[in-house]
Amino acid sequence: MPACVKSNARLFADDCLQYRPVNNEEDAKKLQNDLDAHQNWERAWQMTFNPDKCEVLRVTNKRNKFLTNYTIHGKQLNVVNEAKYLGLTISRNLTWNNHINNITKKANFTLAFLCRNIRNCLQKAKNQVQSCTTTTSGHPYNTHLQSGIPTRRKTSAS
User: Fold this and answer.
1) CA separation (Å) from 87 to 78, 93, 99, 104?
2) Which of 24, 74, 126, 136 has its CA at a distance of 20 to 30 angstroms from the CA of residue 40?
3) Read out DSSP for the chain?
């Protein structure tokens, strides 16, 4: 990343999070200058930032917020109420509610998927076990099917 960038930046793989306190117009200009420096850096390294994937998240509880627009490649960045970063949902007021709701929703989808598919898989497995099960009295262990679950038990011959 360019050394001339004055904002804080966090990098992970191909993700970049850039942030700084913005309380007035001068702070906003500094942030836009840092975004411009990133654009110069990307040209030098033959990379491109996709402005459609870049977002502005204003983290504040102030009633009178300083609002300004930021651009990359001449395109105004979308302002959002929450953003995902490394699997964490960060909201504009820094509460955990949105993150917990997203995690819970994902877990419920996974649970519903498993419930739907395991029920069918268990029945198929039971049918396969029942069709493959044979009892041989000469073998020291007989296969015993009880409630659809295969278990092994010793025969009285051994």
Assistant:
1) 20, 18, 9, 13
2) 24
3) --TT--SEEEEETTEEEEE----SHHHHHHHHHHHHHHHHHHHHTT----GGG-EEE-----SS------EETTEEPEEESEEEETTEEEETT--SHHHHHHHHHHHHHHHHHHHHHHHHHHHHHHHHHHHH----TTSSEEEEEETTEEEEEE-TT-
Instruction: Specify the pTM.
Output: 0.65
Q: What is the CA radius of gyration of the chain?
A: 30
Half-sphere exposure of 65 (CA within 13 A, CB side): 12
pLDDT digits over 10-39, tens only?
Answer: 888 878 888 999 999 999 999 999 999 988
pLDDT tens digits, one per residue of 68-90: 999 999 999 999 999 998 889 99
Q: How many residues does the chain have?
A: 158
